[in-house]
Amino acid sequence: MIEIMTQEQARTFREQRLLEEQRKLAEQGISSAFEGQFLVTIGDSSCDYYNFKHFITTQIFEMGIDNFVEKTDWDKKEVIEYLATVDQYDDLWEEQVMDYFGGMEGNY
Predict the structure, then answer these.
(1) At what angle are helices 52-63 and 76-85 packed, to 10 degrees?
(2) Backbone phi and psi for residue 45, each to the nearest 5 degrees, phi listed first
(3) Which of 5, 22, 40, 43 is the most exposed, fewest CB within 10 Å of its CB?
(4) What is the pLDDT of residues 22-36, one digit of tens each?
(5) Strand runs (DSSP E) across 1-108, as ranges?
């Protein structure tokens, strides 16, 4: 039997499926986040992004710095300074992914 869903039901179903996939990735030790409506992986060369800073940097270039600043409430000069000076493995980048991009850290 074929079930027909409304747009809202289909959107909810897709979101639930992606969240379940994200939990499975976390159980495998793979961090992830949402890039728009797509789930991407973060962690090493076998993932979509090498680390959290790589993900954030890409979001800034894809969204534009003004849109990124609006979404995250950062100061534009501060974002630029942090990109230039803060280490790629600093917790700051992970926190940004978790807070603003639906990130989930892999269970190591």
Answers:
(1) 140
(2) -65, -20
(3) 5
(4) 999 999 999 999 998
(5) 31-35, 38-42
The pLDDT value recorded for residue 108 is 64
Q: Round to whole Å and give the CA distance between 22 and 98.
A: 13
**Can you read off the two tokens belonging to residue 30?**
């793979």
- The residue among 64, 103, 50, 39 whose CA lies nearest residue 79 is 64
Q: Are 59 and 48 in contact (CB under 8 A)?
A: no
Taking alpha carbons only, the member of 102, 93, 80 closest to residue 43 is: 93
Q: What pLDDT does residue 46 have?
A: 86
User: What's the confidence (pLDDT) of residue 57?
Assistant: 95
